[in-house]
Write a structure and sequence with these properties.
42% of the residues lie in helices and 15% in strands. By secondary structure, it is of the alpha/beta class. Bound molecules: zinc ion (2 copies).
Length: 293
């Protein structure tokens, strides 16, 4: 059983439509696919329709942009009721922040002599719910300014770059609470990835977050070296957090993240689904069915 619980479609910064992503998962022998676009549930319905016609089980999720003690953290919210008012409100704030960030980013790029218009970004962004930095990076690639997304982030768009603009992200602690009240399960994505500063997410930090409702951590991820995985797994086991693994697939938008390159163990998925059922029972919120539309 191959379980990949963290992927992106072109509703955020992946390059495949939700339908194509599910078809690819089917062709590549993925049994359970998590669709976790950044800050949006827009791709869910399209993915669910296609999944219903295959033997791919779809786990609907969201990768929410959060902050914890001043650092950016990505929170995977699995199977929350997308109509929960607090959840909808926070996702709207995050998406609005990203949309207003775009003109400011382009202004700063013009400040360093790179002439780029919203239309250039729109051309490469497709049907995404929000154009973000990865799309600006793609536009810079298409204009021949940089060779790939990595170079765009390193030279211009990353926190150290001249075109970096701060934007709103949800408070991690309160978002974990919201996910639970929406009947979902909260798992921190790639907590110890080197590009994130993980000092705040040490064993004590994770224990604190567990007390406010955190259910698990993503351990097997390409941004975690083998030694990092072993150390994080030990912390998770110690705390009794569930452990996931996933590709963080972005289509052609990110190299080295092929579907199923990391996977989640069946017993961990079973636990996640039990927790989702319990959260949904307790909150009175309906968890999206994982098999049907
Ligand atoms: Zn992430
Ligand atoms: Zn991701």
């Amino acid at each position: 059983m191959r379980i990949d619980l963290h992927t992106h479609s072109n509703r955020s910064d992946g390059t495949e439509s939700p339908a194509d992503l599910v078809r690819r998962a089917h062709v590549e022998g993925i049994d359970v696919l998590g669709l976790t676009d950044h800050d949006t549930t827009e791709g869910w319905d399209e993915a669910a329709v296609v999944a219903a016609g295959t033997d791919v089980t779809l786990v609907r999720g969201i990768e929410v942009s959060c902050t914890f003690e001043g650092h950016g953290v990505h929170l995977l919210a699995y199977l929350p009721d997308p109509t929960h008012p607090e959840l909808e409100h926070e996702l709207r704030r995050v998406l609005d922040g990203r949309n207003s960030r775009l003109p400011a980013t382009l202004e700063r790029l013009r400040g360093v002599g790179i002439d780029i218009e919203v239309a250039d970004v729109r051309r490469v962004a497709g049907e995404t719910a929000a154009m973000g930095r990865p799309h600006v990076a793609d536009a810079l690639v298409s204009l021949g300014v940089v060779a790939d997304r990595n170079e765009a982030f390193n030279r211009y768009l990353g926190p150290q770059g001249p075109a970096y603009v701060h934007r709103y992200a949800a408070d991690l602690e309160s978002m974990i609470g919201i996910v639970g009240r929406a009947g979902g399960v909260a798992v921190i994505a790639h907590p110890w990835a080197s590009r994130h500063d993980h000092r705040a997410l040490d064993a004590a930090g994770l224990a604190f977050l567990q007390e406010v409702g955190l259910a698990g951590v993503e351990v097997d991820h390409e941004d975690h070296a083998p030694a990092t995985r072993a150390a994080l797994r030990a912390v998770a086991d110690d705390l009794g957090l569930l452990v996931t693994g996933s590709s963080d697939h972005h289509g052609l938008g990110k190299v080295g993240h092929d579907l199923g390159c990391n996977t989640t163990a069946p017993d961990q998925l079973a636990r996640l689904l039990e927790l989702a059922a319990a959260a949904s029972e307790e909150s009175g919120r309906r968890t999206p069915d994982i098999f049907r539309t």
